[in-house]
Design goal:
The complex is a heterodimer of chains A (245) and B (380). Chain A is of the alpha+beta class. Chain A has five helices and 13 strands. The longest helix of chain A is centred in the first third of the chain and has 19 residues. Chain B has a single domain, classed as Porin (Beta Barrel). Classes of the chains: A alpha+beta (245), B mainly beta (380).
Chain lengths: 245, 380
């Protein structure tokens, strides 16, 4: 009996040590090391579904680090329209009018092409640890895999989501689910990521399903058709010159 | 809506075919062609010659875009129109080439100088200070193009220089038929008749500053310096000022007649549940224009463009737009609704109503201004 109690205590202590062996900041650093690439090229599609059916947008995107991204739509309806994120600024380009629009203020929270993604969702928010205070809430098992459950609270005003909860796969460092909340604690968006494949030594989810909790019967599925993590990107690809090309 | 150019004939068909072959042939070897087609069908009830008339309209646009080549880009657009007249047009046909230090554009296209949705004093190339006399329903109300050559020199991520020349000036869509427009390309030009200019775009903190100069080689021959800036302070804002100074014998006592100023603001409010409400207000000011109502006056000093748009969902949009002439208290109002019901398909309807008496800029009984239109647009 004593031996059993000792084993239980020892196991609990080991589990507790294991839980505290990694900090929330280290988890986020591992996630960013896996997710952020210095020269990424993606061909993908975005399927927007609502009560009237679905609409498919295709795109090519390029990214370098956490704050540089260029996305070009390739489907006939929006062909040539582009979104550029450079540091904390977002620009749109409409080829028919040869017009560049600098997105500012609340327009950043607008939906992209009627999808459940906002411009900020599509282009990223930069360095997570700079912007959010991160807390490790615990460990959970989801679909048989060990996950870290994190809470992220915005360090400054003006971020798209003041509070987020994220679940990170403890082996692959892939975020498999994110719930985003308003300042009052109201659920705004739910995002699920899956079809995780190993590409060039990193784990990459090949689909993302985003549901805007404020929209009824609506969801957007983004799927990666092709990805390069060490793409040969021109040095000046993240510029107004490339945007208007 | 694009400019409609009447006057389609047999020779135009040959020229169009030639232009199509020229625009696509060089591209075929180095890139793939991505085609897209836009078909718009609409029916309007409109007031014309004192009676109400029905007018069906069909427009089709074929766009051939090159994809896959990072340094060469070709684009060709052929528009056709069947309505109160039959027309065919090539609003865009150009090649872009990227070289190590600059980028070259040749063909028919548009350059967007300055800033502003309807009124833009900085648009010294195409001119965006005149009021729009007809259709207010388009997603882009200024879409004129011209045959031009442009050189674009990037200066960092956000700044650049751009030089442009328009050998044939800006075509007048109400006068220049496609055949005339294309045949002018075959005639050699005297050097002094070339129009051209240069601009620089720079970023100062959160404000973008743009300045440039453009000279017209054809009547009216003018020097057109301008300055334009835009940024965000509670709302998105823009401010532009330009001079149009005659190249010969300018009368500096009447300098205010050469000055044009435009200002605008835009703000979008996210209402939650995927609804949004946006406000836009633009003003065109000509200090030397008429500040008092005069009979048949058409050069009033102040014109306003307010717009309110409400989107109850991501696919439905309701808009109220007006062109207001405060000096003679007249206005052209447009209420429109559009619904992107399936992929590529949009149903739209708009009601256009002028308000003003017999001598005003917008007259309630003016031909073609009062109309109700219902239509469909399909892009594939």
């Amino acid at each position: 009996m004593r031996r059993t109690i000792f084993l239980i205590l020892a196991f609990s202590l080991a589990a507790s040590l294991s839980l505290s062996a990694i900090t929330a900041e280290e988890i986020v650093a591992n996630v960013e090391a896996n997710e952020i690439n210095e020269a990424e090229r993606i061909e993908g599609s975005m399927t927007i579904s609502d009560r009237f059916g679905s609409r498919v947008k295709t795109f090519v995107s390029y990214a370098a680090g956490a704050d540089k991204m260029l996305l070009e739509f390739t489907n006939p309806e929006e062909r040539g329209q582009k979104i550029l994120r450079l540091e904390d600024e977002i620009y749109l380009y409409f080829p028919e009018a040869e017009e560049v629009i600098h997105l500012q203020g609340s327009a950043l929270k607008e939906s992209v092409m009627g999808s459940d993604f906002s411009y900020e969702d599509m282009t990223g928010e930069g360095d997570l640890l700079d912007q959010y205070e991160v807390t490790l809430l615990g460990e959970e098992t989801i679909d048989g895999r060990r996950h870290y459950h994190l809470e992220l609270k915005a360090r400054k005003r003006g971020l798209a989501y003041p509070k987020q909860e994220a679940w990170v796969d403890a082996e692959t460092w892939v975020t498999t689910r994110v719930d985003s909340y308003s300042l009052s604690g109201r659920l705004l968006k739910e995002m699920e990521l899956g079809d995780i494949r190993k590409v060039a030594g990193k784990y990459v989810p090949h689909y993302i399903i985003m549901q805007d909790a404020m929209k009824k019967k609506s969801s957007t599925e983004m799927r990666i058709e092709a990805i390069e993590l060490q793409a040969n990107l021109p040095p000046d690809i993240f510029s107004l010159e490339e945007l208007t090309w | 809506m694009r400019a409609r150019i009447p006057g389609y004939g047999g020779s135009a068909a040959l020229l169009v075919l030639l232009a199509l072959v020229l625009a696509t042939a060089p591209v075929r070897v180095a890139a793939e062609v991505a085609p897209s087609v836009t078909i718009t069908g609409s029916a309007s009830l409109l007031r014309n010659n004192g009676e109400t008339q029905a007018l069906p309209v069909v427009e089709a646009s074929l766009e051939l875009d090159s994809v896959g080549n990072k340094n060469v880009k070709g684009y060709f657009q052929l528009d056709s129109f069947i309505g109160e007249s039959i027309g065919i047009d090539i609003p865009q046909a150009y090649l872009k080439v990227r070289l190590p230090w600059f980028r070259l554009t040749l063909g028919r296209t548009r350059v967007s100088w300055g800033d502003g949705f309807v009124f833009n004093a900085g648009d010294v190339v195409f001119g965006s200070m005149e009021t729009i006399s007809g259709d207010l329903s388009g997603s882009s109300l200024r879409s004129e193009t011209a045959w031009l050559g442009a050189v674009y020199v990037p200066l960092g991520a956000f700044s650049f220089l751009e030089a442009v020349t328009l050998p044939y000036g800006v075509p007048d869509p109400t006068k220049d038929a496609l055949t005339t427009d294309l045949l002018t390309l075959t005639v050699p030009l005297p050097l002094h008749s070339l129009s051209g200019g240069i601009r620089g775009v720079f970023k100062l903190g959160r404000t973008t500053l743009e300045t440039g100069y453009y000279a017209t080689g054809r009547t009216p021959t003018e020097h057109r310096p301008y300055i334009s800036c835009h940024g965000h302070l509670l709302v998105d804002w823009n401010l532009s000022a330009a001079m149009a100074i005659p190249q010969f014998h300018p009368d500096w006592e009447q300098w205010d007649e050469y000055l044009g100023i435009s200002a605008g603001m835009f703000h979008l409010i996210n209402l939650g549940l995927n609804r949004s409400l946006s406000f836009r207000l633009e003003a065109a000011v000509r200090p030397g224009g008429d500040w008092q109502e005069i009979p048949d006056g058409a050069d009033y000093a102040l014109v306003l463009f307010p717009e309110v748009a409400f989107s109850p969902t991501d696919t439905v949009s309701l808009q109220l737009r007006s062109l207001i002439s405060p000096v003679d208290r007249s206005a052209l109002n447009l209420f429109s609704v559009s619904w992107n019901i399936y992929q590529g398909l949009t149903i739209f309807s708009y009601l256009s109503l002028p308000v003003g008496d017999g001598n005003d800029q917008y007259q309630w009984d003016q031909d073609l201004l009062s109309s109700w239109t219902v239509g469909l647009e399909f892009v594939y």
